[in-house]
Amino acid sequence: MAKKKLIHFQENLTFPHLFQPSYHELGMDVKGSRLWRGCRSVIEGNLKNVAFIRTRVDHIGKFFAPGEISAIWITFPDPQKNKERLRLTSPGFLEKYSHVLSPGGIIHLKTDDAVFYLYSIDVIKKLKHQILWNTDDLYHSGTDDEVIQIQTYYEQKWLEMGKKICYVRFKLNNL
Q1: For the chain, percent helix, then strand, then coil, each to nearest 5?
Q2: Candidate list 29, 58, 78, 112, residue with the active-site label
Q3: pLDDT one-digit tens code per residue, 115-143
Q4: Angle between helices 114-126 and 91-100 (to 10 degrees)
Q5: What CATH number is attached to the domain comprising 37?
Q6: Cβ-contact 132, 171 below 8 angstroms
Q7: Domain containing 61: what range?
Q8: Is 78 a catalytic residue?
Q9: Burial class (CB in 10 A: 0-12, 13-18, 19+), 11
């Protein structure tokens, strides 16, 4: 059986040591600095299951076949306060993800931006997608879920500043 494929957007790219060896891990970003850091870590860690694609997330359908991706991690994205259509959880992006996610595929979102988190929850609910679990304060939620064991650079920074980390795990309704 082929390995499942996970795709990461944004800040997880600089932390490939968090990636799971039982998966093919794919990082997608347009920012060369994050990709460079991720590639450097992959080489230093001698990881064989990680690859990177330099492109905008809205081009996801050009790189993956229908149903090819098992899960998507969106970590600390730019909340695009003035450009809703560019938010990585906007209806347009969720539609793009639906074409590449496998049946039962899961999307994970971590953010320190409460307004973006609430926007995302609202979009998920309005489109009747299935929220599997969510919290507006991940590290005081009482969970022992693996998601709290994966901390990015900015996540550590925000926690040190006393910021709350919001998290939602969901499935799209058409999968």
Answers
A1: 40, 30, 35
A2: 78
A3: 999 999 999 999 999 999 999 999 999 88
A4: 70
A5: 3.40.50.150
A6: yes
A7: 4-171
A8: yes
A9: buried
